[in-house]
Amino acid sequence: MTTVDNQADAATGPGAGDVQQRLVAFLGSRTGGDWDLDRDLFASGAFSSLFSLELLQHVEQEFQVTVEGDDLTLDNFRTVPAITALVQRLRGDGAAGR
Amino acid sequence: MTAQATADARAALGDLVGDRAEEWDLAGRIPAETVREASRRGLLCAQVAAEHGGLGLDSRANGELTAHAGSLCSSLRSLMTSQGMAAWTVQRFGTAVQRGTFLPRLTGGETAGVAFSESGAGSDLSAMRTEIRRDGDTVHVTGAKVWVTGAAYASLLVVFGTYGDGAAVVVVPADAPGVRIERVPDPMGCRAAGHADVHLDGVRVPADHLLSGAGLPVALLATAALTYGRLSVAWGCAGILRACLDSTAAHTRTREQFGKPLADHQLVARHLAELAVAEQVTLRCCEHASACWDENRPELGTQAVVAKYVASREATRGAATAVQVLASRGARDGHPVARAYRDAKLMEIIEGSTEISQLLLADHVRTGRG
Fold first, then answer.
1. Chain B hits for A54, Cβ within 8 Å
2. Most CB atoms closer than 10 Å: which of A16, A80, B65, B99?
């Protein structure tokens, strides 16, 4: 986990574990249970229609990033690893940063 | 700095409205020059940053400005709600280039309407049939929107529609070929807010008018835009309550019946107490939701619904109380409490009706603990 690699998937880069952990904690707290890492947030039916905005707000606030332009896609928010990859990229962590 | 900016904006708004709110209500029109001036001074979307010609107020300061507008004229306040929602949608989903293109226009004399509702898609926005389709460098927009606030004044329309499997938002110039704007003849409330139906018949705009986030679920796009709108409506309702409280307090101090001022009659005094509490409760909900906005807290969307729900119900009840207490003195179209009575009721309908708000809040409780 701590080895710097050059894979395109930034979710395996440095700090990714921390981001994933905090996302899982957030999702768990909002659903009142353990959150499965690969569960599809939007297909799960676990969330209300207000939740998608809440998630976007949370990701920006918690990780101090701004998600805009072409990054505003459903796929970037579909699973914890996807969000993690987005956060890593926006923070410029690891080799996958822009 | 913000305090000074807020005070200046408040004074500018007061100058613009003066004592003409009644006249505007009766005519169903705000003079175009007044609307332009409000836009040019950045008053209609006061949270837009200075770099785009805006006043750069935070949500709290803009809320207080909105409440002031609501206490004077809910029609102008409605224009603030739609302009602010348009600006926020561009800010939230636009690229840097789009923000630089459209926001200065919204603080430079132009007006925008935000087109959500359709005849078959009111509360249920997922039933929207307006289609936004991209074809190379052109975006095609076809559909029909109803009750678009401010559209009768607007040079820009922020249009929500379907886009493939999801939804999208496109900025459509009101003078683009294929756009037809038809004023709602006799709105019950906010009569001068320029409500209009908007027909989009094979409209073509450049692809750079399509905001980012195209393809996202309509729930996300609409909730983001509506969150601003709900907060704005809530603060506007706080202003309605303030106007009702002021009118009622003044009337009950001076009007005498049975040998004493109305305020000394216990049943009237209770109305005064309830109005005062309604204003306070509304303000606290608005302040809390604005704090969520200013601190970028995740619960913002929910708190905006709470604020709008509480505020519009309190305003509806409070305005009815004010009319009851002022009786024949207030029972004339154009009078502040008569306007409040009609305007407040519409606030229970737009940006998510009272019942939809209840469903959203219940669903939020059911699916999460936050």
1. 298-302, 370
2. B65
> A52 and chain B: CB distance < 8 Å anywhere?
yes
CA separation for the pair B139, B116 (Å, rounded) = 18
B38 burial type by CB count under 10 A (0-12 exposed, 13-18 middle, 19+ buried):
buried
Check A53 against B212: CB less than 8 A apart. Answer: no
Per CB-CB distance under 8 Å, the chain A contacts of B298 are: 54-55, 57-58, 61
Q: Is the pLDDT of residue B117 over 90?
A: yes
Verify whether the Cβ–Cβ distance A42 to B217 is below 8 Å.
yes
| CATH number corresponding to B218-367 | 1.20.140.10
Maximum Cα interatomic distance, chain B, rounded to a whole number of Å: 78
Are residues A71 and A90 in contact, defined by beta-carbon separation less than 8 angstroms?
A: yes
Q: Which helix (H) or strand (E) holds B17?
A: helix B2-17
Kindly state whether residue A1 falls inside one of the protein's structural domains.
no
Residue A1 has pLDDT above 60, yes or no: no
- pLDDT tier at B133, thresholds 50, 70, 90: very high
Asked if the C-beta of A2 comes within 8 angstroms of chain B's C-beta atoms, the answer is no
Comparing alpha-carbon positions, the chain A residue that sits nearest to B304 is A50
Domain count, chain A: 1
Class of domain B112-209: mainly beta
Q: B362 touching A, CB under 8 A?
A: no
**pTM, two decimal places:** 0.93
